[in-house]
Specification:
alpha/beta, Rossmann fold, seven-stranded antiparallel beta sheet, seven-stranded mixed beta sheet, 7 helices, 21% helix
Amino acid sequence: MAVDVEASVLGNTRLSDDYNVLALDAPAIAARAQPGQFVMLRPGAGGDPLLRRPFSVFEILRDASGTPTGITILNKRIGVGTGLLFQLDAGDRLPCLGPLGRPFSLPGPGADAWLVAGGVGLGPFATMAETLAARGTATTLFYGARRDADLHYASWFSDRGVRVVTATEDGSRGATGFITVPLEQELRALGEGRGIAIYACGPTPMMRAVATLAARFGHDVEVSLEQTMGCGLGGCYSCVVRVKQEGRAPHFVRSCIAGPTFRARDIVWEELAH
């Protein structure tokens, strides 16, 4: 069940001129959040921006006893709202509603987990990685960006036992090109009988490419869509996504309720905005 709190900023770690990780004092949300869920934040006072913005729950913060005390979100400065989030300081307060949405499903017994992230699409995977580690699931992060300097938090994952495979468009780290390059190589090398669960988040073209590639090798992908959301509660219908139904025509669902996690094979990708 979601709660609406006035969260205090615990810290703001600026990773670059555009990216930052914002830590929020929100124990009630942290105690309820599951991997893949999100919160709705409104950083500004007054009417600009008027609506809250959705952000994946990035990390669950805990005290020395392991009790959840807060969350972090991974932010990229793009517009007014994200620009305000980039500028916040410790002690600032902002409305925070969550956790919202349907979480990721977890891998079956004996299956490895492959997380495929592009840019700010890394957002849902910190909580996922920690949950998988607690279950003893072997995890690989396929992480793509334009350049080495944009591969934020890669060491955070490797420090927690996640195998990190990278690709950069300029070739400055890992494979040269999109993250689908090393992903295809590893799918080809994957031995028969080895179970994997694949998850993806990032730009729509990237997720569609990952889903298409995985399907060629007989694997489905669970994606976390980055649809525009006006309310996060299903009331405004701004985040509708068309999905397939067995034996029936595709229909529209609200990604803030039915998602944001979906099986890639259920999505009508041609109708998603790029």
